[in-house]
Amino acid sequence: MITLYSTEGCHLCEQAFDLLVEVGVDIVKINTVDIAFNDELFSRYGVTIPVVANGLSELNWPFDISQLKNWLEDNGITYN
Q: Please, how many CA atoms are within 13 Å of residue 51, restricted to the half-sphere of its CB?
């Protein structure tokens, strides 16, 4: 499972989601978390979203498709 920390109306977050889909990550494996409703998450990610996470490993924006693929591979996450 991949967590995408984002918030509603964030165009960069939409771009990050689209990159995940573009590389072939199954959308059912993407857990989108809106940080706006959680003070701890907002404090942690408020200025860095979108952030893609898997356990303790995180990939902060900005990233491109190549960096995303490398991060996915480094974390053992399969994609098409």
A: 19
